[in-house]
Amino acid sequence: MSTITRLVQGKKNPSRVNLYLDGVFSFALSIDEVARQNLKKGLELSDEQISSLITTDQNDKIYAKIINFLSYRPRTVSEVRARLKQYQAQDIDGILGRLREHNYLDDLAFAKWFIESRNAHKLRSPRMLVQELKIKGVSDDVVSEVMGEIADVTQTISRLLIKKLGDTKRVLTAPERQKIYSYLSRQGFSWDDIKKVVKNWESE
């Protein structure tokens, strides 16, 4: 057992408290954790309690880093898990659970934001969006759910045609048709879908 002999507020960081055990500086904790654990001078701590306090403080520091990581843009659970491994976090699942509890992590919300963000700059085919979401680590179930809520392939191709060719429908010349087919194909649309939509567009 070790005894807390001093509790000193940090000079550089007043939100931290330096703990001295048996007269020797041992480690620092946040003021909130000191209050939560009711730590005070004269209190005896076992080796297990000391280890637990140090681990909790390390997790709190990593948690703060992850909050900063999430402040730039939404992230997937997979992205955050990878970052936690970089930080060598010992309780990855615990930190992920804490983030979910405070609504910092939600793959469905991320997927909706991602699709809106991507299409705001440049319309993409559902196939391409699915591919990009999976690269981000979004599960198949979440991908299926969010993709079911967006415009279908025909609507997306039609919007791209209007964007490229204008509202006036007309029969395209062979070079124009080839150019638009190539463009839509690069966006991830299948040849059959492109042909069907372009044919309907020309016949209207």
Q: What would your notes on this structure say?
A:
The protein is α+β, with helices and mostly antiparallel strands. It folds into four domains: 1-45; 48-105, Orthogonal Bundle (Arc Repressor Mutant, subunit A); 107-147; 153-203, Arc Repressor Mutant, subunit A, CATH 1.10.10. It has ten helices and four strands; from the N terminus they run βββαβααααααααα. It has helices at 31-36, 47-71, 77-86, 92-101, 107-121, 126-135, 140-147, 153-165, 174-186, 191-203; strands spanning 2-9, 16-21, 24-30, 44-45. A four-stranded antiparallel beta sheet has the order 3-2-1-4. The longest helix has 25 residues, at 47-71. The mean pLDDT is 85.
Give the termini separation. 85 Å
SSE order, as H and E? EEEHEHHHHHHHHH
* Helix-and-strand structural type: alpha+beta
CATH class of the largest domain: Mainly Alpha
- What share of the residues lie within helices? 55-70%
For the sheet with most strands, the description reads: 4 strands, antiparallel
Find the count of extended strands (DSSP E, 2+ residues): 4
CATH architecture heading of the largest domain? Orthogonal Bundle
Number of domains: 4
The count of helical stretches stands at 10
Average pLDDT rating: 85
The CATH homologous superfamily of the largest domain is named Winged helix-like DNA-binding domain superfamily/Winged helix DNA-binding domain
Low-confidence stretches: none
Radius of gyration: 28 Å
Label the overall shape: rod-shaped
Strand order of the largest sheet: 3-2-1-4
CATH topology-level name of the largest domain: Arc Repressor Mutant, subunit A
Beta-strand content estimate: 5-15%
